[in-house]
Amino acid sequence: MRVLGIDPGYDRCGVAILEKEGGKESLVFSGCITTDRSTPFEERLGVITKELVHLIEIHEPTICALEQLFFTTNKKTAMRVAEVRGAIVAMMYERGVTIRECGPGQVKVAITGDGRATKRQMILMVPKLISINHDIRYDDEYDAIAIALTASAYMRTP
Question: Hey, what's the torsion of the CAs at 72, 3, 16, 92, to 10 degrees?
């Protein structure tokens, strides 16, 4: 089973592909899709969806795990992230990829055992759960790996 974990965003969109075989996960790919802040939102959304289509074609995930929206005080940002999520959900549906949503607390419990874990605790714990063979620059990538691990842990299929 292949799980595509996504930490949705339009400045940076964290992505991770996990392979689960025999109950053990391995990291196939992870990174961030970044967009140029000077371009219109529609173009940025196009960049993200185009890159995700490319990842789907290469890695053929069967599950797409998305983090549920966490509303902050910045409503404009939350609305844009919701638009990104909507585009991702529609794209996955069109390609027959099953969607699984994980709440922020659920991810924190799955990764650290504590639903109130800090970002730093999450970042420290992820490499203890799965081997990462490259440098990670943005926390969005750690988040995507954590989301994929969480979805994989809750899946009943080996």
Answer: -60
Separation of alpha carbons 114 and 122, rounded Å: 10
* Number of residues assigned to the chain: 158
By annotation, the residues acting in catalysis are 7, 67, 140
Strand runs labelled E in 22-92: 24-34, 63-67
The domains located in the chain, with CATH, are: 2-154 (3.30.420.10)
pLDDT tens for the chain, 158 residues long, are 999 999 999 999 999 999 999 889 999 999 999 999 999 999 999 999 999 999 999 999 999 999 888 766 677 888 899 999 999 999 999 999 999 999 999 999 999 999 999 999 999 999 999 999 999 999 999 999 999 999 999 875 44
Sign of CA dihedral 108, 70, 92, 101: positive
Beta bridge partners of 26: 19
Cα 150–chain centre separation: 10
Residue 26: name the closest of 55, 1, 6, 53 by CA: 1
Taking each continuous run of H as one helix and of E as one strand, the counts in the chain are 5, 5
